[in-house]
Amino acid sequence: MTIHTAEERARALIAGKHLGEVLDLLAEKVAPGVSTSTLEDLANEYIEARGDSTAFKGYTPDGAARPYPATLCVSVNEEVVHGIPNENPRILNEGDIVTLDLGLTHEGFIVDSALTVAVGKTDQRSYELMDTTRAALAAGIAAAKVGNRIGDISYAIEQAYEGSGFSIVKVLGGHGVGAAVHEEPWISNVGYPGTGEEIVAGMVLALEPIANIGKSAVVLRPDGYTYATRDGSRSAHFEHTILVEESGTTILTLRASEAS
Asked: What is the pTM of this model?
């Protein structure tokens, strides 16, 4: 686990502010008729305007056969994570739900965040999925404090879905972030309280609950990155990068639209 210095934490605060701004701008552009490739182009424009750089494009996760080919991940409806927006672009339609997942680097510090939004108006069950997943992220963040353990985060996220009928995607989860896109520790979205690594001051973590309307099983598509639900049901994903300190936990990637 990486414990970040005061100087690194200062850069993390700026990086998170920038990413929150970019995701707010991108979410405003989600509308019927918009192409995923347009969102990719805008993500590059907004990141560069702040003097930052993409964290995802060119990154090769463990087990991947090639580097990720885009700046933004855009996952529509049944796509769970890591949808590639610029290779086979999709046109967004009224009633879709779409996840925007983005990482940027500010002066060497990486932050990561995601949200799922409706394209125009969608069905009630999709709204419930998004609301519950957003609440699960808030529950995980509340459990991420000095002296707790990683399992406390996992348990809080899992309990937020209790009775909802939604299925948590267990093969995907959160992680440390900062010097690299993915760092230790791995943070499952299911777990037991009082287990796992102890949470200490200076940790920067990306928490990301992901759940489906149908069953939890997912499949990896031939592009090597896009995970989709096996049964074709819709999926939602919310993520924030947080900084844990003795004085409390800061949501680095908080968006203005959430704070208002």
From this structure: 0.97
